[in-house]
Fold each of these.
Amino acid sequence: MLQQLKNGGCSVQELYVQCLNRVQMIKSLNAYITVTNKISQIQLEESAQRYLKGIPRPIEGIPIAVKDNFCTKNIKTTCASRMLENFIPTYNATVVQRLLDSGAILMGKTNMDEFGMGSGTTESIFGPTRNIWGSHVIQKLNTNFKESFSSPPDDFFIAGGSSGGSAVAVASGSCTVALGSDTGGSVRNPASYCGVVGFKPSYGSLSRYGLIPLVNSMDVPGILARTVGDCRSAFDIIKGWDPKDSTTLQRPLNKSKLKRTSAKLSKLCVGIPKEFHCPGLSSEVSDAWRDVMDLLENCGIRVVQVSLPHTSYSIACYSVLNPCEVASNMARYDGLRYGYRATGKNLNSTESLYAATRSQALNQIVRGRILAGNYFLLKENYDKYFVQALKLRRLIYEDYVKLWSTGVDLLLTPVTLSDAPLFSEFNQKDSRAQSADQDYCTQPANMAGIPALSLPVRMSKRNLPLSIQLMAPHFDDETLLDVAELVEKELNFPQPTFKET
Amino acid sequence: MIFNVRTCGIQTSLLWKLKGKLSFWPSTCGLREIFTFNCALGKPQEKWKHWISVVGLEVHAQIKTNSKLFSGSANKFASPANSLVSLFDCAIPGTLPVLNKHSIEAAILTALALNCNVNLISEFDRKHYFYADMPAGYQITQQRIPLAVDGHLDFAVFSPAVHKVPYKKQSKIKQLQLEQDSGKSLHEESSFGSLIDLNRAGVGLMELVFEPDLKDGEEAVACVSELVRILEFLGTCDCKMEEGSLRVDANVSVHKAGDNFGTRTEIKNLNSLRALSRSIDYEISRQIAVLENGGKIINETRGYDPQLKTTLSMRDKEEKQDYRYMPEPNLLPLNLLELKLHPSDFRARIPVLPEQQRTVLMNKYQLSLETTIQLVNGGNIGYFEDVMGALPDLPVKKVCSLLLTDMLGLLHKDERTIHQCPVHPRRFAEVVELVKNKTITHAASQNLLSILYRGDKRKPKQVVEEEGWAMINDSKKLEAICQQILSSNPKAVASFRAGKTKVFKSLSAHLNKECNNKYDMGEATQTLRRLLQERVE
């Protein structure tokens, strides 16, 4: 696309109008919370000028979407919560700023689970985001598939979450790249269900400044795009040290192993961790997984079975660490300085104001986690829960460190246990059970801080995307992207194309 | 921009919550307690003597840096409300803390000056509590692994009104930790809400936790005063208690000899040395009175009311606070070596500290502890050293007495400090030399200092010559003066003979007048006594 912009095959205005049309077409999927028309116009003019003058920036005119938990200057940033429904930041998150500085055009802010707590993009005050696959939109507009399975009229396939809005925005072609955030799988999970590439880089490779936190020690901004190449372009722009985030890496990332070992694939070793053959894994995902193993072997890569013994504890560990940091991070939402503030006659003390504000403006899942987190952090419970969870996290982390030291370069695993479930199925389970299913394969990478990527493989019987996950050692993001690109080429996943109206 | 917390009804409850941050108190609270205890507090009763009081201090010292601990906002007192507030300071979502290197340097320097072990790796924690002037709902502090531990502060306790003789004391320092200051809540009884000023929110603090090894208000004041001197020497805190840049909490308990420590109470946010001393002594008496009357001490936070001169319970309905500490996930552990902040490099930057100065003075000049305290603690040492260095072999006792009694007396009357002294040390030294060479008497030197202080531009020697103040070294003349006094006071001589030795005083007064500061008064008095004895016999 960038090539077309550069050689004049398409103007930035044309591209923008196309994407804006797409935004309108998918309105019923509820991918966007805010569409930033006015601001886009200003950016668009500058982009057009720059092309005229011949001084385009690296991704001049490329349309992007941003999950609504990244602060955007003068644009509402709601976290899909009543608490921040009218919150307008005065600054841009570093990753957003870097994209804009490189010429990106912001299409809008995308839907999510409230404060990122959920795995379906079903817990938003703006309503759930629907998957484009199996929706009437794709039936009407897709020119790729003649037959298509469709959801029952009163139901829909979930987009996955919590960055479901960004995944649908990309899958529908309303933008080239979207930012999401990944704490337990929130980028990879919706990417898997929506058939796009979802990249969670190494913790520390991207700045979290301006990302409204869920779990600070695991949050990583993530990138969703249709291709690994697009992911990489965006990653190259936003990665790197940020003085505003003390947890970002000051040195450059490791060079790709493929470049280090003179591009010989046969030197690579991909591990298949047996713990990821978990209960509930659908045969379709299992088959797709096996097919990719074969594919890798056919490329000359060595594929070996490995073990990550503490994998199954990851969710339990997460269910303690997540609420603790949530309880702490959410303490600032008291209604005094910004955000929702309760009103009423009975609010005659600071405490009652706080209590009313928080119970009215935060949903039940958020409040439940705040309660749990504060319980775990009580003096008498701290060692019993928080410290134990930290120890467990260390064990999970060490599983990976040990594995890399045996010469394994990458891991190949499922992302999600099946293709996208129907909302009605998904909604039968409570939030904790959802997380246990949805995050099983993705959560360990966050515990270990390692880079991981969800890659679409093929369509399921229901005509929904099936994906697999690649993981690499900490700061080996380049190797991960290189191998992902290679596999992507072999798989040739059928992206939907649209009839323009 | 001022944040209006609430438009109605909230005031009373916030007052209760405000702990020690209020400069006034709701008029109704604690009245009963005052009546109960004030009667008992007049004089410590004899039976109270077997009680032992224990005092431990916690000092919050604002780090003197241009910007705040974790944000780039300026750190300035008395700026327009909410004019020094960055996004981070008001806890805007998505913002992150970035540690200020200068704050770490100041804290390392302070820790070393206080004989602490500096931890090469320390960590930050979040301490949670809901408070209108604590925007994030937590304070970033160092609870588990602080910057420095195990220090001590040596100081001298000397308040002439209480003890004639000074004594030395040490208070151990458990830890020195970096943490954020809170904002300020402002309440006016007439206003309809509470106002919050976040200028102070996020300013860097060094919290010093002392072990409970002091015994009363006097020792606490001596300890804090010494700490203030050290911090001022180092330039790491400006120590303006009245502006809140140095605040003290005191933990107080009492027990009987042989028993374990009693239940302690905490007096919060004491912002003057007077309040520190008085509140502790009041609290000790109060606790003893409660226990003597069969009561129980409750572990609670109390505030000090400077008007009523009492401590008041700040208990509210709230249960015991659990701060739910958690490691701060947005900051890496503070690794000094990685930041190229080697504590050993800081040792050279520590100036000579007061305790060392006192020891040096005692050894170099054979001065008493009392005198060295007056020289060092009063800040007079610089002037003293200048005087001693101006001329060789000056009598140090004479220098001290003229400086500490006469010169300070003059300065004190005009509410000046030694740094504003108009008499140049060189001139001061010349005055002392005149005394040393017996050119003038001690009394004449006092007059001389006085006129120099008032702005006389002449050299001391010239003044003595022109005013005719030179001492007369003529024992014959002195004898004649004495004889003349005795002769013209026959009644007094008679009384003396009758055994009323007190009359010598009145004769001395005559002598003083006659001598007019020109004779050595020691010699003159001796002569008078000798001649009187001769007459009597």
Amino acid sequence: MSLFWIVIRQLAEIEAMAMSKKVITREEWEKKLNDVKIRKEDMNKLVMNFLVTEGYVDAAEKFRMESGTEPDIDLATITDRMAVKKAVQCGNVEDAIEKVNDLNPEILDTNPQLFFHLQQQRLIELIRNGKVEEALEFAQEELAPRGEENQSFLEELERTVALLAFEDVSNCPVGDLLDISQRLKTASEVNAAILTSQSHEKDPKLPSLLKMLLWAQNQLDEKAAYPRINDLATATLEDPAI
Amino acid sequence: MPTTTASAVCTTVGNNILLRLTSGERDVKLKALRELKNQIIGNRTKKLSFLKLGAVPAVAGILSDAVSAVDVADNDENDRIVKDIIVQSAAVLGSFACGFEAGVRAVLDAGADILIQRGCLVEEMPLLKSYMEVVDAGARSLKMIYQSKMAPKYDFLQEENMEFLLSLLNNESENVSGLGASIISHSCKTSLEQKLLFDAGVLKRLTSLLGGSLIQRDASLESIATIFKNNPEVVSQFVGPDTGRTLSCIIEIVKDRFARTRLLASLCLIVIRNASPCYLQDVGIKTKLINNLLELLDDPGRVGDEASFAFSSLIAEKEDMQKLAFEVNGVDKLYNHLQKGSLHPRRFEGILLALADMCSKLECCRSRCLSLQVLKLVVDALAHDSSDVRSAACMCLRSVSRSIKNLSAGSFMNETIVIPLVRLLDDTSTAVQVAALGAISNIVVDFTTRRSTFIRLGGVKLLVQLSKSMDSTIRLNALRALRNLIFLAEDKCKEEIFMELTASLLASLICDPEPSVQEQALALVRNLVDGRINSVEYIFAEDGIILDAVGRQLRIASKAEIEIQGMYVLGNVATGKESHKEAVMDQLLLRAENKAQSCIIKFLQSNDSRLRTAAVWAVLNLTCSSSPGSSGRLVKLHDAGIVSHVKNMVNDPCLDVKLRVKTALEQFNSFDDSLASTSCLQFLTVRAVGELSHVVDPSSKIPCDSISNSCYVYVTDFCVIYSHVANSINSQCL
């Protein structure tokens, strides 16, 4: 009988060893981290790329002076782009359109979806300011033809015009269109289109790197227990729970 | 009515702007130009209405004035405004030309392209050259114009044009070099132009642009592909250290982050690969391209739509590529995309064509398609709104129905497939009709007795109607389908088909102005008279006009394919009764004008072994020992010099011919020995083989192999011919 229990216990131990993860202590981990060499130039480039893509002109200028890192875009064009973004964020869509066309007349001509969204935003702003007649006329003249050309545009147009049907616009089903987030969404779209037209990537690299970090940690979690970064803002290593 | 008010408003605003355009004051003009620009960009409807108000010539006029005004500009302020006017008017004209055909036409009519070129880009305006804005604006607008199909043809042959192009390419500005690349991509069409560009050394600059910005890279890839497309000569000159660099550069770009760039790079490599067999042949690159394109299908936009077409150009006609694609589950991946439903028509068409190419040669692909139930989706596509999709669905069906296994099992001859297909025979688009005929040609090759389904559903009526079409391609394909339909058909079937066709139609088709139609008509008759003795009677209908037509064609024809079919017709008729055999003799011994001998002698001496084979078959059947009149016929043939020609062929290089000649000689000798006739019969029984027929259609290359594949019937795309020997044995053993 006791032999039986010995065997069982041994089997359980073997199983536990197979299933248990490798444990890496903080010392080991930090040593491994220190062994990885990253060049300062690469770090600077990442920072500059972030500043430039997001449009922080002054910061980029300052950073350039302090670190000697060259931006991969002409900083002057950033100013133009930021002006457009700001105009949309403030609800001056017409102004934004003029600025985009000054920057590069091809963008709106070759981007029907973006153009539609800008026109849609104009309509939203007219509705927000209570100019119902003007809004209707605008919808008919400018947006209806776009809706005819494209089914998905038509659906979005219907959603937008639906705003006029409700008395209490902030609580209606399509009320999200009046949110600031809608403006920001459109602004982001314009920003991306301008960046693409300038052969620049529309997303900064830093968020992608952070995503990769989180993904790698998730993968490693299945195989080992190690000091993890849980708070991206502080990037502190937290000891594994045992 | 709201709409009228809207457009009335629009016209008022429009007129207002146009009025201000004519103002004498430059400020007012400039402001009006900017307003006009902002009105029309992105807005097709506005473009149209301003076009109608005559905006384009007005703006072109302003541009022209401004360009000449630059010379006489005397102060900075004036310069600035003039420059702005040029920029804005160029932008307006460019916008009118953007993706809007009526606009392009108007812009070209106003001579704006030349104006812009001269005004913004040419060396003679030193003042302007310092204004990058003007150059950029001009380059952008010209690029828009050159992207249209209606763009003026750029004359590469003119030296000054070539120089201008090179100066554009070498310019620092992205827009200007982009314009140069765009001109190449859209205007370079002939191989002479390709060679000129290659010789002028543009490739060097284009390669360096590959390392530039995204826009430069994309533009360069398109241009490189254009220069090499279908031009093996230019590709063959593409040797040396530069080549390796350019190729490896492009291969790297296949892995680029941006989907469009990956697609363009793949297309570039495919073009080079297709133009020359020596580049990009290793398995690694082949697999990379296939996987890349299959992956690009996932892109939801235009890139995904075009990826399937690129895939087709990669694998079409290439069995090795199709095999590789099959091994990486290409069929499954394509099917998954097909399943998604509510596809953009262009994407739908592309995927169907890709599947058609995958299944064009490999049975494994076809089996996979059928097991995945692709047919159901394909049949649905037969009724799609877009004619391109319908056409593609037919081609897919045609490829899949090359599967002998499934044809024999009758998988295709059912109402769900036949009804929509037959409906397409009446389609408004000729291309769809032709594609449907192609699919039908395969499907009617049925080894079961289900042809009646097709006939019952009105297929034959439509096919016969189409065989009378004005369009020779339709006549040709309709005849092909009928030819396959009638192959090995039962008597009742044949009768129904013949009733619909009529002897006079057949006779006239045999004498059709198009040689390829003649060939198919003769092949149809060959299948018609094949089989039991009663079938032979068809050729004698209406006083034998069909037989007369056949004989006539044989005497005047010059194309081997027609002669072959004609001889087989006669050979088949010669397996009939005595009267039939005598009728064939009459035809053979009839001499054409200016010809001293029977046409069959010419055939026996032909370089084409298929023709020699067909001719000897006819002689064999005419002198068959068991027929009473054979000895008489042998004498006549001998007198016409035909027998001695056959005797001379005893060592013919083609095995088929040699064996037939051997049999014929034994038959000739057997007239002295009655015993020999039975052994001859046995001899002939043993030699029963299936015969293949070549098809002129380049998509099927089936070798004629009758000896090693005894009794093996191989179905080709457009025709299957069964053995005559077996028939003659049957008729004699009755």
